[in-house]
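Batch manifest, entry 17 of 40.
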Amino acid sequence: MAHTLFPPPVISPAQLDAGLRDRGYGVLDAAGVRAWSGASADDLASLLPGWDRLAPDNYLKDGGRYRHRRHSCFVVEEGDAVRQVPHRAHWQPVEYNALHGGMERWFEPMAADDVARPAWAQLLQALASTASALKGGRPWFIEAHQFRIDTEGGIGRPTPEGAHRDGVDLVAVFMIGRHGIKGGETRVFEAAGPNGQRFTLTEPWSLLLLDDERVIHESTPIQPLDLDAGGHRDTLVLTCRAGGFQGSTT
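Output type: structure tokens
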């Protein structure tokens, strides 16, 4: 695997709504995320220890043991009130996830102290505001996934299901950190056309936002730079959906 990094097409928060409308995706650097969300660098950093206490993902159908994660669900009401809902399974139809769709996956919930931090609500509110600007104001049902993909088995797959849509309205992929790896390239393609772009998110707290109706996305496998030392890639994925969570009418 060639260790080549293509820089992401970063835009400013002021350009984000237009970028989503015009291209179906937009990338913010860390400074842009702070401006977009109102969260300070210190507040965002306070969330980072959560990635060192993720539980193994025991549902991988490829037999891998390279993924750790936590999952919780929230609703952001019109007016920005954020509430966490009772813990629930993550579910996707096979039309959107051919590998793991159609099954209830019960992951460990996010740690209560992380959910209580001010930066957490700010990230959810910013995502809901962007979704409302793109799709119209309404309550937004947000699923949060903390991921760590490691290279303990020699290779880790951030998206084992391949290029996909998530069956939601808006997807936010935050780069939390890359440690001792190569690969992990992000690829975004038109859902109904031939065009695409490839780049590598490397800056902690940079962000890729995707209009899930218009684009499909994937991340390529990762390998360690040093086989003895290993490595991992941490991300936060927030999916934002109108009308209810997938698999639910509420």
